[in-house]
Amino acid sequence: MTIEQQLVGLIEHDDSVDPFPVIGWDALVWVVGNATQSAHFLQSAFGMRLEAYAGPETGDRDHKSFVLRSGGARFVITGAVDPDSPLVAHHDRHGDGVVDIALEVADVDRCVARARAHGAIILTEPHDETDEFGTVRSAALATYGDTRHSLIDRSAYAGPYLPGYVARTCAREPGKRVFQAIDHVVGNVELGMMDRWVDFYRGVMGFTNMAEFVGDDIATEYSALMSKVVANGNHRVKFPLNEPALGRKRSQIDEYLEFYRGPGVQHIALATGDIVETVDALRAEGIEFLATPDTYYEDPELRARIGAVRVPVDELQRRGILVDRDEDGYLLQIFTRPLTDRPTVFFELIERHGSLGFGKGNFKALFQAIEREQDARGNL
Ligand code: FE2
Questions:
Q1: By CB distance 3.0 to 4.6 Å, which of 23, 176, 246, 261 could disulfide with 104?
Q2: How many other C-beta atoms are found inside a 10 Å radius of the C-beta of residue 120?
């Protein structure tokens, strides 16, 4: 098994029979209120490295974009420069968030033909962009809310990111890498819309159902949600989709939908090979995580369920790291508090040991932790 197979749970897959073959993640493109500072935060706290840049100095007078990388994960952090930029209205509505879950594909035209035949909205038709480093062919499809999927074929391109970007590094010595890859990206959609978006990913992109979580699994005393997971052929790209379910109080998904003003990306799971080291490094940088109560670790059922894991339970407890086991193996995971002013997007850190799951056994404990924070914000 390769490192990547273990890190993100890849499976064998034959692309030749796939109607919409996806190589993997290309980039997560964010729109934020202050790209200069957000890019600095992701470098200083999350150990990402600056690789490329576009902005007024490179002829782009509308906005600045910083391209950051950590292992196989690429983030593009964009903020408006021109007060009349359309990004200003986008940010005014949604706050900081992910606007584009860009996917790398080998054949943009084939994917767009499939998408069109299955009723997808094509935001940008397939086209070429060229500079001295070669040519990128790309297109973009609409997905939930104001989110899109760019489809990128970079096989004939050797530049630092896309045509128009220049290579750029930071004078500051980068810290130790704390994550290696994107594991999954979760979307929150409105009540009643989860199955519609599951059908979208199945029909348009040929994704398959991986898991679903409904009913008691993920209900707390106060609120509930439903979640289904779709994945591409090799499972590199995994999209859990959540919708609120009716509960006694307002669910965390309702809170997100209110503050993001509609559907959008809720959390991004970052794969790490050593979650203990990662969490210690992030805490040292001031990153805050959701608190896990001691009762979670003292529950004899938990210890029986998880069996032997590589880190002693008291080490996990000291850091609030959650653990779950299924028929394939186990995983360790932890969630940050919201990364932005609005209670919307956050990160998960995940260390997989065979498990292809998402921590179903932890959903209840996790949601209770989120609700304690929601309550503190006056939004429960
Ligand atoms: Fe997750």
A1: 23
A2: 19
From CA 173, how far away is CA 176, in angstroms rounded? Answer: 10
Extended strands (E) in 196-341: 208-213, 224-231, 238-245, 264-271, 322-326, 329-335
Would you place residue 259 in the very low, low, confident or very high pLDDT band (cuts 50, 70, 90)? Answer: very high
CB atoms within 10 A of CB 54: 23
The alpha carbon of 266 and the centre of ligand 1 are apart by a number of angstroms equal to: 9
Separation of CA 335 and ligand 1 centre (Å): 8
The predicted pLDDT at position 167 comes to 97
Query: Alpha carbon of 198 to those of 11, 24, 337: distances in Å?
Result: 20, 19, 27
Compute, in angstroms, the gap from residue 109 CA to the centroid of ligand 1.
31
pLDDT tens figures, 130-163: 999 999 999 999 999 999 999 999 999 999 999 9
Residue 364, number of CB atoms within 10 A of its CB: 16
91 annotated to bind ligand: no
Helix (H) or strand (E) holding 50: strand 49-54
**All domains of the chain in start order, with CATH:** 3-167 (3.10.180.10), 181-377 (3.10.180.10)
Query: Quick check: 182 pLDDT over 80?
Result: yes
Beta strand segments in 143-237, E: 148-153, 166-167, 181-188, 208-213, 224-231
Rounded to two decimals, the pTM is: 0.94
Residue 298's pLDDT band, with cuts at 50, 70 and 90, is confident
Q: Please give the distance, rounded to the nearest whole angstrom, from the Cα atom of residue 113 to the centre of ligand 1.
A: 31
Other CB atoms closer than 10 Å to residue 327's CB: what's the count? 8
Instruction: Assess contact for 33 and 96: CB atoms under 8 A.
Output: yes
Q: What percent of the chain has pLDDT over 70?
A: 96
Q: Is 276 helix (H, G, I), strand (E, B) or coil?
A: helix
To the question of whether residue 118 is assigned a binding role by annotation, the answer is no
Q: What distance in angstroms lies between residue 277's CA and the mean position of ligand 1's atoms?
A: 20
**Do the annotations mark residue 94 as ligand-binding?**
no
List pLDDT tens digits, range 4-21.
667 888 888 888 888 899
Task: Say if CB 350 and CB 322 are below 8 A apart.
Answer: no
Q: In the chain, count H helices and then E strands.
A: 11, 17
Q: Strand, coil or helix: what is 200?
A: helix
